[in-house]
């Protein structure tokens, strides 16, 4: 039963005094500490996976246009008797997202490997983060 009477741990980023956040006049927020961090490593497989999925999804924007051109090309080619433009346009609309996803994976993984190499020499990207008060 002694575990029920324990106080929650104190977050050092939110002191218990009533000092407001700098620059927010009249605010009841607590002081927010900011700290610098460095990104020294990026997992290549995760970066490749994320970029591959992102590129594959973004390529879906172009699919309706390729299908439209395939239909228009097929209508124009029907006069000449060649079905090649319609087949090429529809096939390209199907293959494009897969191609973009594969290239996105390769570029993402290689980019992460190159970043990791450069981060060893330079220390990596430096950025600043801050803890925010809990949402009400």
Quick structural overview:
With 136 residues, this protein is mainly alpha-helical. It has three helices and two strands.
Structure description:
- The chain is mainly alpha-helical and 136 residues long.
- The chain contains 3 helices and 2 strands.
- The protein has a two-stranded antiparallel sheet.
- Helix 1 (44-59) packs antiparallel against helix 3 and helix 2 (63-80) runs antiparallel to helix 3 (84-122).
- The protein starts with 33 loop residues before the first strand and ends in a 6-residue tail after the last strand.
- The model is unreliable at 17-27 (pLDDT under 50).
Order of helices and strands: EHHHE
The count of β-strands is 2
First-last Cα distance:
30 Å
> How many domain modules?
1
pLDDT averaged residue by residue = 78
Helical content class: 40-55%
Count of helix runs: 3
Fraction of residues in β-strands: 5-15%
Indicate the overall shape.
elongated
Main sheet: strand order: 1-2
């Amino acid at each position: 039963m002694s575990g029920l009477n324990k106080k929650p741990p104190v977050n050092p980023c939110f002191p218990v005094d009533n000092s407001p956040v700098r620059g927010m006049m009249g605010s009841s927020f607590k002081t927010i500490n900011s700290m610098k961090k460095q990104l020294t490593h990026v997992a290549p497989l995760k970066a490749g996976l994320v970029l591959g999925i992102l590129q594959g999804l973004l390529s879906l924007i172009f699919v309706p246009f390729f299908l439209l051109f395939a239909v228009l090309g097929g209508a124009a080619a029907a006069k000449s008797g060649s079905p090649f433009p319609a087949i090429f346009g529809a096939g390209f609309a199907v293959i494009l997202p897969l191609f973009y996803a594969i290239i996105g994976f390769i570029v993402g993984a290689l980019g992460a490997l190159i970043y990791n190499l450069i981060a060893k020499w330079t220390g990596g990207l430096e950025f600043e983060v801050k803890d925010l008060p809990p949402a009400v």
